[in-house]
């Protein structure tokens, strides 16, 4: 039985900074609902007013 899923079967979101789609990664398994940006670069260059309180 295959243990891997196709990348097209994984959940995806749109990055709030660059607008590109990105897919789920294993390192985001515990915090997927909070993930908003596709990379550190996009997170560091987020649009004005989008800063979180944490």
Structural description of this entry:
- This protein is largely without helices or strands and 54 residues long.
- It contains one helix and two strands.
- It has one helix at 40-44, and strands spanning 12-14, 21-23.
- A two-stranded antiparallel ribbon has the order 1-2.
Strand content: 5-15%
Strand arrangement across the biggest beta sheet: 1-2
Overall helicity: under 10%
Q: What's the rounded overall pLDDT mean? A: 85
- Estimate the global geometry from the Cα principal axes: elongated
Secondary-structure content class: little secondary structure
Distance between the termini: 42 Å
Question: Which residues form runs of ≥5 with pLDDT under 50?
Answer: none
Count the beta strands. Answer: 2
Question: Helix and strand string, N-terminal first?
Answer: EEH
Taking all Cα atoms into account, the compactness measure Rg is 13 Å
Largest sheet report: 2 strands, antiparallel
Question: How many individual helices?
Answer: 1
Question: What's the short story on this structure?
Answer:
The protein is low in regular secondary structure. It is built from 1 helix and 2 strands; from the N terminus they run E-E-H.
């Amino acid at each position: 039985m295959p243990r891997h899923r196709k990348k097209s079967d994984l959940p995806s979101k749109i990055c709030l900074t660059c607008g590109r789609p990105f897919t789920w990664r294993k390192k985001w398994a515990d915090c997927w609902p909070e993930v908003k940006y596709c990379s550190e670069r996009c997170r560091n260059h987020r649009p004005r007013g989008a800063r979180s309180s944490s």
